[in-house]
Amino acid sequence: MERQRVAEELHKPARRRYKRRKYDIRGIDETWQADLVEMIPYSKENKDFHYLLTVIDIFSKYAWAVPVKSKSEFSKQGSYKWLNILPNLLKVYNSRKHRTTGIEPKNVNQANEREVKRRFPNEKSPAKKTKFKVGDKVRISKIKNVFEKGYTPNWSTEIFTITPVIKTNPITYHLKDYYDKPVSGGFYEIEIHKTLFPEIYLVEKVLKKSGKRVFVKWLGFSDEHNSWINKNEIL
Fold first, then answer.
1. Cα–Cα distance, 118 to 27 (Å, whole number)
2. What percent of the chain is predicted at pLDDT more than 70?
3. What are the DSSP E strand ranges found in the chain?
4. Based on CB atoms within 10 Å of each CB, which residue in 61, 92, 121, 129 is the most buried?
5. DSSP state for residue 113 in the 8-state scheme
């Protein structure tokens, strides 16, 4: 019965869309967002470029993208050659009206900066009460990509502990792992859920057997935590 309930907890639906914290941006080029998109599967068709560095100015919504061959420095008619179409994709994006500003990103400048800022939504609502508290044991959402199978878990097999609760809007939570090591960044309420089974850990593999005992590797843990347990301890 417990095994079934743990499985149900791991496969509980996880939401992809939810409210996030707002950025307080005062003008052009004050804050940029950047991300490194992995394009390794298509590198042979794109002059050995493995990554795409994408950057967007949060205020104007103007975007840049630069192909890079390593971290240190689209598909059409069956082709994955994105390198040649990248400039045109950016041109189209920067020439199209953005739904937030109502202006094409390429046309936002210091002359109309004040007008653009007036168009940003001003949503200030009181922070909700906290759903979780310091010390709660939780799992982290694992949003699937389109290639993952439906039977893979929606939530982490590893269990984390809530440390500080940050009174942002929405509220965010900081976590630490099994080794008491802080997890980078904060998590929204919707990205975590409290586990009903904080003392149950999943066995990845039985490595050895000896009478009524087995030597196991724990799912989500390094080999140094492999250990002997009684067979009757396995659900």
1. 11
2. 80
3. 32-38, 51-57, 63-68, 137-140, 160-166, 172-176, 187-188, 192-194, 203-210, 213-218, 227-230
4. 61
5. H
pLDDT of 38 reads: 84
Q: From edge to edge, which strands make up the β-sheet containing 187-188?
A: 187-188, 172-176, 160-166, 137-140, 192-194
Instruction: Say if residues 174 and 164 touch (Cβ distance below 8 Å).
Output: yes
Tell me the helices (H) and strands (E) count for the chain, helix number first.
Answer: 3, 11
Between CA 133 and CA 173 the distance in angstroms is 9
Q: Which of 186, 169, 190, 189 is nearest to 123 (CA)?
A: 169
Structure-block tokens of residue 186:
């904060």
Residue 145 has a pLDDT of 43
Q: pLDDT value at position 200?
A: 79
Please give the model's pTM, rounded to 2 decimal places.
0.51
Residue 37 phi, psi (nearest 5)? -95, 125
On whether the CB atoms of residues 202 and 155 are closer than 8 A, the answer is no
User: What is the pLDDT at residue 13?
Assistant: 66
Tokens 């919707």 label which residue? 190
Note whether 12 and 195 are within 8 A (CB): no
